[in-house]
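Sharing a chain and its predicted structure for anyone who wants a worked example. Both blocks are below, sequence first, tokens second.
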Amino acid sequence: MVILDAGDARLSYFVAGDGPPVTLLHGFTQSGRSWRELIAHMPLGWTWIVPDLRGHGETQLRHGALCSMDACTGDLVLLWDAVGVERSHIVGYSMGGRLALHVATRRPDRVLSLLTIGAHAGLEEDAREGRRRGDEGLAERIEKDGLEAFANYWGSLPLFAGLERRGPAYVAEIRAERLRNHVAGLACSLRGMGAGAMHPLWDELAQVSVPCTFVAGQLDHGYVASARRLAATVPHGRVEIVLRAGHAVHQERPDALARVLASHLAAATAAGVSSSSPTTD
């Protein structure tokens, strides 16, 4: 992992491969490591730019630093500048998918294409306050009970039941990854980047003109509906439903997602998008 000074944060990231850039944005309680298996399934010819988002992994926050969509967008622009990338394809899962949508609306000049997994573009106003209260309760729960208790609770949610199909050893690996995080970071992320805190983007998505693919697992019914709504909202959107998968498609069926992602990147390339390759040491 490499560390980049972002002023109020020290951003941890890695870069792998060679070719047009693809930036991977992980979900809540994860880190950049969660993408390594997907990368291994992908064909050669791509540069993978993989940060630990604020509040997660080895990224460190200075006192008073914010965890927010705007702050993470600024981190990504700084990271792209540091590695010499003018525009990047963006892939985001869950919280990272919401961030990807935020970046596409706030910095369209830096985006080549967009693929989200298990994501939505924000809650309706009448649902946001209840979700904010729920996220605050979860943040307080982490601070009160500690990381291990929260990891046990989070991993037991029905949303992640599909991971169990890969066996107990894999579930233990995912739990160990969650335990690499820190109490203060996850609490900060919930308060600043939870679905309740996120500004809804539905009315802005019509301006997202790059090729977009919205992925959901067949068994993740609410997010299947969100994927269809997202695809209908942007000018160049399509939906991919991955069979026999729930919320965490990239971990439940990395082989299937690799095929979807490879097809998306090929289609975006055929559509004539251009990029600058990163410069790395």
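Comments welcome. Residues 274-281 have pLDDT under 50 and may be disordered.
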